[in-house]
Amino acid sequence: MHVLVIYVVVLAINVAAVAKLNPANQAALAHTEQDNPDAGRINWAINDAPPFHVLHGEYQRQGVCDVLIKVVHRYLPELRPRYLEMPQTRISQAMDNKEPVCFPCMIYQPEAAKRAIYSQPTHLYYPHQIITNNTTAKTLRALYGEPISLDKLLDDPRFRLGYPAGRRYGVLQPLLNEHDPYLARSGPDGAVAILNMISSGRLDYTIDYPMVANYFQQLYNRNMETLIIAENQQPVAGAIGCANNAWGKQQIAAINQVMPDIRRDPEFLEVLKLWHSSNNNPANDDYDYYNEQGLKAFDAMAGKKSEN
C-alpha cells in the first residue's frame, strides 16, 4: 500500500524560479566563471535551513554550516568568501552543472564523487530519526515499538509524512522513493515550517537530524520527540562539497590541508554541541565524544582504502 506523502515547504515558488538564481546572484556567478581559479575566492552556496544555516532571527549566522564557513576562512585567510543564497534544489542543480560553487553542508559520500568533490569529513551528525509530537510518538511506539521500521510506517496511510524540498536521506532514500506519489512544494525554512505543522497536528511526522528538533525547541519552546529508525542507526558524516571541476578540486585541496584545525576549532565545536545537545535526550549530551571517535573511525577507514 502506498502512502500519500505530503512533501511540504512554505512560501511556494514557481518552477522557473527554482531553475535560476536571483539577478544579483546570477550576475555574480557569471562573473566568477570568468575569474582565474587562482583569484583567491570561495563561492559559498547557502540556503535558509536552520540550524544548518540560520539567515535571520535570534540565532542568525549561528548555524552549524554558517560557523563552518567562518572557521574555514579563519585558517585560509588568503581566500575570500562570496555568499550566494539559493534554494536547496538550485544548489543541487549547480553541482550537477559543475558551476563554481561549494556547499558546506553536504553528506560525505565520496563514492558519489561524479556530482561533487568532497572534503574529508568535517563533523558527525546523529542518524536521521523520526520527529513527531508527543501524542503521535506514543501512538507510534505502541504500534511499532522502537527502533521503528520506516518501511512499515511509510506503508501506513494513517500517518502523514512531510519534509523539505531537495532533501536527501542517504541509505533511507530508496525507501522513500518506493512510496510515491509526492505532493511537492518548494521554499525556504522548510524544516521549521514542517515542525510547526506537526506541532499543530496538520502533519504527523518528518525525517530529520535530531538537532533540527533541538533548534525548534530552543526557538519556540515546544518539545518534539524523536524515534530511532531501525533501517539506519549509523552516524552521518558532514563534509564540504565543491564543483567537480578543476576549480572545485583546488578549493577542496586547500580545505583538506587545514582540516585538523577546522575539526578542533573551539567555535566550531561549541556550535556543534549547541545544536546536538537535548534536554529530552541526555544521551545526546555526550556529543563531543561521539564526534571525536566517529571522525577517528572515518579517518581509519579512509586510510585503509588508500592502502588498497
From TrEMBL:
InterPro entries: CHP02285. This is ABC transporter substrate-binding protein. It comes from Arsukibacterium ikkense.
